[in-house]
Request: fold
Amino acid sequence: GDSVTQMEGPVTLSEEAFLTINCTYTATGYPSLFWYVQYPGEGLQLLLKATKADDKGSNKGFEATYRKETTSFHLEKGSVQVSDSAVYFCALSANPNFGNEKLTFGTGTRLTIIP
Amino acid sequence: NAGVTQTPKFQVLKTGQSMTLQCAQDMNHNSMYWYRQDPGMGLRLIYYSASEGTTDKGEVPNGYNVSRLNKREFSLRLESAAPSQTSVYFCASTRAGVCTFGSGTRLTVV
Reply:
């Protein structure tokens, strides 16, 4: 079945450091890929998405590129801020164009940014 | 612009008690979902509803039932709560693969 494997945390960085959170996936067909972010005490929010190979999703300085050849969707940010401290989830939606919109999530990576 | 609204936000149950978690969305989405979040396990799908009048089991349906009352509302029921059901529960609705989540219900079963 479909699965998502993401970098285990927790990850602690200093402010302005470069961030990478690794995510790889297993899926049949042509999934869409997502990064969601969860701030303390809140539900998940969509951070960015990519729907086909070589697409780059971006938002709030975060980027991720859909790499079909390596089945990866790594999250990056060039200079993190304290406000980026949260839990980040990689997810896929198998065949969303055919009505299968269920999301399969990774286990989440807790990120803490130190001033 | 409410999005997805879940009630209650917190609940403590005794083993064997029953309760219903309520969820409503105002975005006219067809698909709705119930997930549970446990430490180190990410989010796991309990049940989902692809459209009004249909429901299907997800990854961890045992001990739960759902009702898609209409297009807006999707409730989750625990008939006889167990300590293993202590978790944070999230309702969500989806359009074009993009999920909008409620703020969650933190449930403790003692």
